[in-house]
Amino acid sequence: MSDKHGEEDKKAKMHLKANDLLCVNGCGFYGTPQWENRCSKCWRAHQNEMKKCQDFAKNRSLLSFDQFQERRKSTTESKSRGIKNLFKTSPIPEGGTSSPTSTSPASTPTRHSRRRELSPDSLEARQQFTDFLVANLSTGMAQEIARSVKNAVNKISEMRMSSDDMSELVMSYYQYLGERIGGHSLFDSPDCKVKVEDVMDQVEKYISTFCYSIFFCANHEEEVADMSLQDRIRSLHWVTAGFLETKMVFKKQTVRDKIDEAISELIEINAKRSAFEKLDCLTKSCKAIFEALKESEASTSADEFLPTLIYVLFRGNPPLIQSNVKFISRFAIPARLMSGEAAYFFTNLSCALEFARNMNHESLQMEKSEFEAYTSGHLAPPLSVINSACNQAIYVLEGTIETITNVAKKAGSLAKNLTNMHGKSDDDLEKMLAVIKETVDFYPTDEYMNMKQSIFAEEKETADILVSLSRQSSESGRGTLTDTQPSTPQPDTSLESPLIAEIQAINLTSSGNQEHVEEA
Amino acid sequence: MAARNAGTARPGGPNRTCQFKLVLLGESAVGKSSLVLRFVKGQFHEYQESTIGAAFLTQTVCLDDATIKFEIWDTAGQERYHSLAPMYYRGAQAAIVVYDITNQESFQKAKNWVKELQRQASPNIVMALAGNKADVANKRTVEYEEANAYAEDNALLFMETSAKTSMNVNDIFMAIAKKLPIGPAQGEPTGTVDMNQPQQQQKGSCCK
């Protein structure tokens, strides 16, 4: 950059063009050397951009993952007795039949004095916790654990300390409680349905839900750091699946659906309170990614999985994700993060975040200036490059167009088939009628003959009635007509004409006429 | 330290179950996940698999005196994710570094992985080197002797494998299982295992 600057200066001494005075951004205004040849507006925008980058760099140390990973590791080793004593209540009696009177007297008043409004989540957690203990453990044991945990929660809410110290404290409490109930003979007996780990799961859930406001994102600086990470990811919006070299087939609706599912599960993490549930969301998200990979007929190995997770992270930009990751690593039972599926996915998420933090032009194998231009929004990734974001949109469009064309084609052929069908059915009907007529004519049955005769007889009868009817009416009609309108031409004496007249009369005139007909 | 997390072992009972974390390293497209799929599912083509995802799998093997549950963590092999690898192999008790015998560069990468593990992973991690794609030996660019000598120098288990024909796939995992410290109880340092085991394992592992 500075080299270029120097060159321009030299050029300016020798020969100054009007163009050289313009803002380097090409906005048409004049630039000033103090503002790196930008106009005032572009300079301000540039400064804002720089500030954002600096903020991110400043907060980067806060975002660092290694620090507390290390710390967590050390806490899980062994703990000072002093911290343990904080949580100590009376020991669990071996028989598992403790009397409730053994409650340490100090804990009861504390509990009452610190009664606070409980959120629905907390209430639910408490209910679940109590139900679990009552259903699976002996009364004495359940009371003992409940008392110990509630005591711990009260102590935690009284304490004011940094998140890392708090994490240390909670970790040592988990270890302490785990050891204490683990040594109990109850869990070795065959009729015990639950394991120590199950109890610890519930304890963790209870504590992390109850103390969520204390545990989560308690430090203002961390929140700020989280925001700047979110800004950072937002500025990397142009990093699309192509740049990360994933093999997603975005043409497929199913793939897109699965990716959307993964994104919403990743966002959902922030809505859950306990580490257990947060990890559950993460697991669901990762499984959706695997399904998307399968739909794309790509391998589901880590070579494909990690880039896709990074892509999902960039697309979703989940709120407070960094704080959530920190929360999980601070307050989840350590075993949860050491082994198992959830641990693997958690490691991957941590890696994806680490990648987002440290991503630079080298990780995408491009020029630094290019990377910066894309990030600041001065340049859009070229359309021609296979990696471009637009290509993805185009793929989607192409897919849609393909679907529409298919649908249209199908509709066309369907309409054609329908017309053919109509024609054919008409033909068939005619043919069938002809065949029936022929058959009946050739092989008339007795019934048919009888029917024919009866129809014939009926027809004749009707005709006779009509004839007599017409005669009557014509006579009466003539009587009235002759009085009023003598000039009216005489109606025909033929059979039809009076009939028509009669019918008209029936239609037009009153019921008297109808009665007349009926009488006839 | 390695044995700390093999913690699910239930002492008592003649046949204990120990859980171990095994991490797969190696350049992309050398067949890391094919190897695991062959081991876990007994099949070669990934799209046939019924489980969700090949990045994380578990498989149990039985030894004479213990049951070993492998938890296999796959890692992304692309160069750009190299710096993230420590997060994966942190706390792993075993590692398989995979290279492609038809690709000299992947062997160089594998050597780098071994070096990194020796420097940064937990000190008694059990390491194995797998030369995959042994079924296309006619296109070989990495000689067996060369890799074997390297493995011996670095006290690694070494086998040439083929996920396609399943050659040596189970064997390499079994060899690792035998070498893992099935300690008497959790939390006890088992540094002595590494001192005694390598010689006797090396013989068994060099099957052709």
Describe this structure in words.
- The complex is a heterodimer of chains A (520) and B (208).
- Chain A is mainly alpha-helical and 520 residues long.
- Chain A folds into four domains: 29-71; 78-83 and 118-215, Serum Albumin, Chain A, Domain 1; 220-386, VPS9 domain (Glutathione S-transferase Yfyf (Class Pi), Chain A, domain 2), CATH 1.20.1050.80; 388-462.
- Chain A contains 22 helices and no strands.
- Chain A has helices at residues 2-14, 40-63, 66-77, 81-87, 107-113, 120-136, 139-158, 163-182, 196-210, 212-215, 220-235, 253-268, 275-295, 302-316, 321-331, 334-338, 341-358, 368-376, 389-442, 446-484, 496-508, 511-519.
- In chain A, helix 6 packs antiparallel against helix 7 (139-158) and helix 13 (275-295) crosses helix 15.
- The N and C termini of chain A lie far apart (117 Å).
- By secondary structure, chain B is an alpha/beta fold.
- Chain B has a single domain (16-179), classed as Rossmann fold (3-Layer(aba) Sandwich), CATH 3.40.50.300.
- In chain B, 33% of the residues lie in helices and 21% in strands.
- Chain B is built from six helices and six strands.
- Chain B has helices spanning 32-41, 85-89, 104-120, 144-153, 169-179, 191-205; strands at 16-25, 56-62, 66-74, 94-100, 126-132, 157-160.
- In chain B, strands 2-3-1-4-5-6 form a six-stranded mixed beta sheet, with helices on both faces.
- The longest helix of chain B is centred in the middle third of the chain and has 17 residues, at 104-120.
- Chain B is globular, with a radius of gyration of 16 Å.
- Chain A binds chain B through residues 65, 69, 245, 286-287, 290-291, 293-294, 297, 299-303, 305-307, 335, 338-341, 344-345, 347-348, 350-351, 354-355, 358, 362-365, and chain B through 5, 7-8, 19, 21, 24, 28-29, 32-33, 46-47, 49, 52-56, 71, 73-78, 80-81, 83-84, 87-88, 90-91.
